[in-house]
Amino acid sequence: MSIHTAHETVAIHPLPPLHAHALKVACSSCNLRELCLPLGLSPAGVERLDTLVANRTSVPRGATLYRIGDPFRSLYAVRTGFFKTRVSAEDGRDQVTGFQMAGELLGFDGIGTEHHSCDAVALEDSQVCVIPFDQLENLSREFSELQHQLHKVMSREIVRDHGVMLLLGSMRAEERLAAFLLNLTQRLQARGFSASALVLRMTREEIGSYLGLKLETVSRAFSKFQDDGVLEVKQRHVRVLDDAALRLLVNGC
Amino acid sequence: MSIHTAHETVAIHPLPPLHAHALKVACSSCNLRELCLPLGLSPAGVERLDTLVANRTSVPRGATLYRIGDPFRSLYAVRTGFFKTRVSAEDGRDQVTGFQMAGELLGFDGIGTEHHSCDAVALEDSQVCVIPFDQLENLSREFSELQHQLHKVMSREIVRDHGVMLLLGSMRAEERLAAFLLNLTQRLQARGFSASALVLRMTREEIGSYLGLKLETVSRAFSKFQDDGVLEVKQRHVRVLDDAALRLLVNGC
DNA sequence: CGCGAGCTTGATGCCGATCAATGCATGTGG
DNA sequence: CCACATGCATTGATCGGCATCAAGCTCGCG
Fold first, then answer.
1. Which of A150, A169, B123, B159 is a plausible cystine mate for B201, CB 3.0–4.6 Å?
2. In angstroms, rounded to a whole number, what is the distance separating the alpha carbons of residues A201 and A122?
3. What is the pLDDT of residues A199-229, one digit of tens each?
């Protein structure tokens, strides 16, 4: 197994063996199991899933978990850290298609063609659980709750993408940024973090790529929100002061 | 079961019973089986799928197959006709998220929440096969090829959406239209139709909504292509004269 | 301390939205 | 069969939002 750093490909290794009780990495004891694949699965099923998801790997900041064209073998669950996925056109233009945080799954893009169609890049030092897909399919033929959860996660990914299409197709710059921030705070909140104070893991340029805007436009929108008392922005540190104003921008108009 | 016409909800009926040999509607004899769910499935599996997909319904032009908020129970395979799917924001803005033709599946948006998150509207008189999803999950636990094909179709939907995000996020009007036309001709060709002569099933406004453009911009782009000798456009009848020029617009820059 | 990546802010220009008028096909009722 | 309405498409004129170009600024880090 190998991952790619920004400029080279290096071998990566499973996490060093740990005393089982020192760091509980099993699905059964993972604090993300209510967000991840095990959701709704019986204890017996989770135990089986544990044997399947034996492999955890670290991905340093800036390295890619997989790349366009890589053969598809596994899904990945983010255990810690933060990722972006991006697609590229032939001419070099690329587009960030999503940001993934703890408990979210990566790799669905590879199932259809047996090859990945996007890059997955760690935005900070991260750890992922490796889920061999053929084994996951086998197990999900045994456990219908696992099967259904897998389908739900994929369906939500489709729905999420539709939401981004709506954003890209019909919203203006400030509305896009507001929608982006609300989505982030919501997901952070679901993980027990504050809904008002957040640290962005990505650059203005990456936000812009995701939102179909240039980095200067993103920066200006941040400044505008700050002037209007909606946000407090200091580089990547953002505090949401007027949550309702953001909602109003996204929904009403 | 009911569908909604443009302004009202009306009962729809399964297609009238047909002499089995008169019109073969079984998956096993469907000419779309190489594009649809049965792909790769054993004869025994297709036979089982046939019993599950017993219900076929007609959807008249302008009617909706399902709507945002409708409870999710089934996937739908387009047998004949043409659909669009669209999502809407609270303030009424909406966005066409896709166009579906024969052999393509509709309804994945509903799995995650048990309710549909978009509308599916017939753009011409159409027929769909109704695939009860719980039964499909049951059957796909028995037939791994069916399970895998389902996953592939969902994965391709995700990849397709990523492509649209790239288009919406980083392409200019003419490039978007070129990409749209190439995608259409390619899919039509896969169904045995000409890759150069096509009849658009959707209005300029619907194309514009899909591409994140206003209808006037779409119209101007068509006119531009016609002036440049790339297309011949007469209302909804389009002939591609210079396929390579379209490709160049999309890929190179 | 000084370098560089990333961020902010300003000035200008362009692409596509908007507003508006006309054209064209289809269908309906007199 | 024509008159008229209606929905859709085309084309022109103008406007505005975001991209682009350009110049400083901030902060982390070797």
1. B123
2. 10
3. 999 999 999 999 999 999 999 999 999 999 9
How buried is residue A51: exposed, middle or buried, by Cβ count under 10 Å (0-12/13-18/19+)? exposed
Name the nt closest to B62 by C-alpha to C1': D7
The CATH code for residues A2-163 is 2.60.120.10
User: Which two tokens mark A150?
Assistant: 């897998």
**CA/C1' separation A215–C7 (Å):** 9
| Rounded CA separation B172/B151 (Å) | 33
Give domain limits for chain B.
Answer: 2-163, 171-251
B12/B90 Cα distance (integer angstroms): 29
Q: Could B158 and A156 be called an inter-chain contact, meaning their C-beta atoms sit closer than 8 Å?
A: no
Q: What is the pTM of this model?
A: 0.92
Which of A88, A156, A168 is the closest to B165 by Cβ?
Answer: A168
- What is the model's pLDDT at position B252? 73
d(CA B168, CA B162): 10
Q: What is the pLDDT of residues A138-185, one digit of tens each?
A: 999 999 999 999 999 999 999 999 999 999 999 999 999 999 999 999
Distance of B96 CA from C22 C1′ (whole Å): 28
Of B224, B227, B238, B126, nearest to B182 by C-alpha is: B238
Q: Which two tokens stand for residue A91?
A: 């001419």
Residue A162 DSSP code: H
Token reading at A213: 């805007």
Architecture of domain A171-251: Orthogonal Bundle (1.10)
Mean pLDDT by 10 residues, chain B (253 residues): 48 46 72 92 95 93 97 97 96 95 98 98 96 98 97 98 98 98 97 95 98 98 98 96 96 73
Tokens in use for A51?
Answer: 């044997």
Helix (H) or strand (E) holding A134: helix A133-142
The answer to whether B205 CB is within 7 Å of strand D is: yes
- Please, what is the Cα angle at A80 between A74 and A84, to 5 degrees? 65
